[in-house]
Amino acid sequence: MKILFLRARKGIPDSRVEKEIYSLSKSHDIELLCWDREFNCRKIVKKNIKIKDKTFKFNYICIQAPIGEGFKKMFFPLIHFWCKVFVYIFMHKNEYDVIHACDFDTAFPLLFIHHLPTVVYDIFDYYADTHKSPKIIDKTIRKFENKIIRKSNAVIICSEERKMQIYPEQPQNLIVIHNSPSFDNIAETALEVRKNITRCSIAYVGSLSEERFLKEIADVIISRNDVELHIGGIGVLEKYFLELSKKYDNIIYYGHMEYKDVLSLESQCDLMTAIYDPSMPNHKYAAPNKFYESLMLKKPVIMMKNTGMDKFVSEYDLGYVINGGKETFKENFSSALNSLLTRKNEWADMGKRGYELYNNMFSWNEMEKRLLKLYEELPCK
Asked: If we measure between CA atoms, which residue out of 163, 149, 184, 130 comes closest to residue 19?
């Protein structure tokens, strides 16, 4: 079976995409149609990208656009991207057995193409709850996204709770694929982790956006001499953390990182954060990669209350759950650090409980089986 993945990002580093295409490549032929936002190019750029021991064909639509700067700045580049996706799918749809669309920002053009191959709609984030937009646009997006759900041959969500988020849509062919890491991604690496052994080290690598309270976390870190923040990723705060790392010795910035290096960094630090703004509707259903990574790597984790998987942190005592919102965040985050530092002798037990939870409920081996089974049962067109 030949599968075309659609992703409105570069597709690497992209932990969920990388895991899914690698798992599916064990039984199927995979290509990606992605969005490179760094530069403009009239033609689609084709590259062979290696993930672990396999090579994949990436087709890049190159349209300059910001990352994480809001719906208004993204609107016209997104329209341009949709037009390019429409043309590509219309011209090449007969070359593929399945189109695997990741999120609304790749699936929308499919609504206007007749006689499509089998469609799998993979909801990383429910789009209308993810972006702050005028009510009329929000309502329109929900209408179209629900139409995509109905039109798709199968729908994937990343947690059981998301069934409530997409309600009243109740697709018959619906599966849950958690954002779990794979042990296959842990490899020996030359990554140099610059740690001060007298400090507690906190790791965060991911989207460098305002909604993750990263500036507030940094403010707390630089006011203390007993903790340090190891941070990397991409987003609007890249320059901010680069400059901060030059000024303060307990802010260590790594920039863009390969996923194996992300896991290596996290495994060498003491604590992890998986923090989202609870005021955003989508974050109520969040399934943070950092939460699952903390389980597999046996690291205590700090989360916000009412942001998806925080109930597991509380129920199994896997770290600390912060109450409140942005107004009291700095004070509450500092309290979380103080509490965890006084329980340092319990970190190993927290990690052990998290690891058992990962193996019993969230392991990527189980997620891979679900994904391959879904594809085995897809209708052929």
From this structure: 184
Pull the structure tokens for residue 37. 């936002």
Cα angle 53, 157, 16; round to 5: 25
What one-character DSSP code corresponds to residue 163? H
pTM attached to this predicted model: 0.90
Q: In the sheet that 251-253 helps form, which strands lie side by side, from edge to edge? A: 251-253, 227-234, 200-207, 271-274, 301-304, 319-322
- From start to end of the chain, where are the E strands? 2-6, 29-36, 45-51, 54-62, 98-102, 118-122, 154-157, 174-176, 200-207, 227-234, 251-253, 271-274, 301-304, 319-322
Question: What digits encode the pLDDT tens for the residues 346-378?
Answer: 999 999 999 999 999 999 999 999 999 999 999
Distance from C-alpha of 11 to C-alpha of 29, rounded to nearest angstrom: 16
DSSP state of 111: G
Q: What is the identity of the amino acid at 30?
A: I
Q: What DSSP line would sit under 233-273, residue for residue?
A: EESTTHHHHHHHHHH-TTEEE--S--HHHHHHHHHHSSEEE
DSSP state, 140? Answer: H
Q: What is the pLDDT of residues 244-275, one digit of tens each?
A: 999 999 999 999 988 888 999 999 999 999 99
Q: In angstroms, rounded to a whole number, what is the distance separating the alpha carbons of residues 56 and 28? A: 12
Instruction: Identify the structural domains of the chain with CATH numbers, from first to last.
Output: 2-178+364-376 (3.40.50.2000), 183-362 (3.40.50.2000)
Backbone angles phi, psi at 99, to 5 degrees: -110, 120
Write phi, then psi, for 159 (nearest 5 degrees): -165, 160
Hey, is 378 helix, strand or coil?
coil
